[in-house]
Design a protein that fits this description.
Length: about 190
């Protein structure tokens, strides 16, 4: 199977999944429903994804996280955040439904993992050969910290019906992340 055909198949499965999540809760969606909607057989699904959670992760990675990677690598954090929030907003109905997924493989844990992967790559690329200021400030800990904060903002924004424009959410995130709590409290 060519790489293009693999990606087209994944796109069909993702489209079917997105259509289903608009009609029913994530928990009720089966692999068979996804493959029927994509007009492929079940073994085709399993050639690409282990389960529907991995499919959701693939959607988040390819449509939200990977596009912001080059911006983050080039120090364009604000632009990356605006792109991330804009991409989510474009599919607001899908992400509003998907963020209701809770439990062991929650939407939050999937998003956090995806964000952490991209941030960890950026950090490791930037700090190669450098010694941290503090032993605890490892690339993994930093990636975890920033992925948790970014995930919190994204999910809170989704759950509040995305009433604030993407650029403003990015501005708010950067405002908070660049200041100490003392600074923020003194500016309130």
């Amino acid at each position: 199977m060519t790489e293009v055909k693999k990606e087209l198949t994944k796109d069909l499965l993702a489209l079917s999944f997105k259509e289903l999540i608009m009609k029913m809760p994530f928990e009720k969606i089966t692999v068979k429903m996804i493959t029927d909607g994509a007009d492929v057989i079940r073994p085709t699904f399993y050639k690409h994804f282990q389960d529907k959670y991995e499919l959701l992760e693939w959607i988040i990675m390819t449509q939200i996280i990977e596009p912001i990677g080059p911006l983050l690598q080039n120090g364009m954090v604000h632009e990356a955040l605006v792109l991330m929030f804009t991409s989510i907003e474009k599919e607001r109905d899908f992400y509003s439904k998907a963020c209701k997924l809770e439990g062991q493989n929650s939407f939050e844990s999937i998003v956090k993992s995806c964000i952490k992967q991209i941030i960890l790559g950026v950090i490791e690329n930037k700090v190669t050969g450098k010694k941290p200021v503090h032993a605890w400030l490892t690339p993994d800990h930093l990636a975890e910290y920033y992925s948790q904060s970014m995930c919190f903002v994204a999910i809170s924004w989704i759950k509040s019906n995305m009433v604030i424009p993407p650029k403003e959410v990015a501005d708010i995130y950067q405002y908070v992340i660049k200041r100490s709590l003392d600074e923020i409290l003194s500016e309130m």
